[in-house]
């Protein structure tokens, strides 16, 4: 079944913990990004680790290999299970994140194409395809591809084969869960869940729609 991953983009520690806890029975992982970590520090991991769900660090890491390695070490030492990195910085830099992830028994995913409208400015014209190819050659565990463009997911699937595809952009950004769930291994949903009047009820509803 397609995984449902909660993008926990909140700025308040207590609210984040409350939303994650209430949604936990209906989701498969929690994605934590800059908004929450910059507001709370990496110690938010301690608040979320009791959920018993994989924690994905969405820091879209994009630096030189040594800095990527240091960032990844900090992420996995804090207790995260996976990291999301950019591939446009080159194979050596992306590989640094993959190696640290694997050394810690974790996973690394490379952004192949983003989900917002402006993403077409740079990711189209063959770039996303090259990033997906790089993800394969770096032995990343998978890629991030846009739920807002199912045709692009299908194209990127041709390149990554059986590797995991996680897809943000369902709901608030306009992506259709039913369509995308057939194409990917996991959908990443943020605002549709955490801004709902009853986040747990919305997570449950989405968990029933996915294939
Ligand atoms: O609120 P919403 O469901 O749009 O959240 C989508 C999440 O996925 C956000 O955390 C966003 O940063 C992230 N993301 C994305 N597009 C990408 C990669 C990550 O929307 N390509």
Question: Please, could you describe this protein's structure?
Answer:
- This protein is an alpha/beta fold and 211 residues long.
- It has a single domain, classed as TIM Barrel, CATH 3.20.20.
- The chain is built from 11 helices and 8 strands.
- The chain has an 8-stranded parallel β-barrel with strand order 1-2-3-4-5-6-7-8, surrounded by 6 helices.
- Helix 4 packs parallel to helix 5 and helix 7 (127-137) packs parallel to helix 8.
- It is globular.
- The termini are close together.
- The model has no long low-confidence stretch (mean pLDDT 96).
- The site of cytidine-5'-monophosphate has 19 residues, from strand 8 and helix 10.
- It is an enzyme of class 4 (lyase).
- It catalyses: orotidine 5'-phosphate + H(+) = UMP + CO2.
- Substrate binds at residues 9, 31, 58-67, 115, 168-178, 190-191.
Quick synopsis:
The chain is built from 11 helices and 8 strands. The chain has helices at 13-23, 34-40, 44-48, 65-78, 91-103, 120-123, 127-137, 150-160, 177-181, 191-194, 199-209; strands spanning 3-7, 29-33, 55-61, 82-86, 107-111, 142-144, 164-168, 186-189. Bound molecules: cytidine-5'-monophosphate.
Core attributes:
211 residues; alpha/beta; TIM Barrel; eight-stranded parallel beta barrel; 11 helices; 18% strand; globular; binds cytidine-5'-monophosphate; lyase
Tell me which CATH architecture applies here: Alpha-Beta Barrel
Mean of pLDDT: 96
What would you give as the CATH superfamily? Aldolase class I
Tell how many strands the DSSP assignment holds: 8
Q: Kindly report how far apart the N and C termini lie.
A: 6 Å
SS-based class:
alpha/beta
Largest sheet: 8 strands, parallel, barrel
Percent in strands: 15-25%
């Amino acid at each position: 079944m397609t995984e449902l991953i909660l993008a926990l983009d909140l700025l308040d520690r207590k609210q984040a913990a409350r939303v994650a806890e209430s949604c936990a029975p209906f989701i498969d992982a929690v994605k934590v990004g800059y908004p929450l970590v910059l507001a709370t520090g990496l110690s938010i991991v301690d608040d979320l680790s009791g959920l018993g769900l994989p924690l994905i660090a969405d820091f879209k890491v994009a630096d030189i290999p040594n800095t990527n390695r240091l960032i990844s070490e900090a992420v996995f030492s804090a207790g995260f299970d996976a990291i999301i990195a950019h591939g446009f910085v080159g194979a050596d830099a992306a590989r640094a994140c993959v190696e640290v992830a694997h050394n810690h028994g974790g996973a690394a995913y490379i952004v192949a194409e983003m989900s917002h409208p402006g993403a077409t400015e740079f990711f189209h014209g063959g770039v996303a395809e090259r990033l997906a190819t790089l993800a394969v050659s770096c032995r990343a565990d998978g890629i991030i591809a846009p739920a807002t463009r199912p045709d692009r997911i299908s194209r990127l699937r041709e390149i990554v084969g059986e590797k995991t595809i996680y897809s943000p952009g369902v709901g608030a950004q306009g992506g259709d869960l039913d369509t995308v769930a057939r194409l990917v291994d996991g959908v990443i949903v943020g605002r549709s869940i955490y801004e709902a009047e009853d986040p747990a009820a919305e997570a449950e509803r989405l968990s029933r729609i996915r294939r």
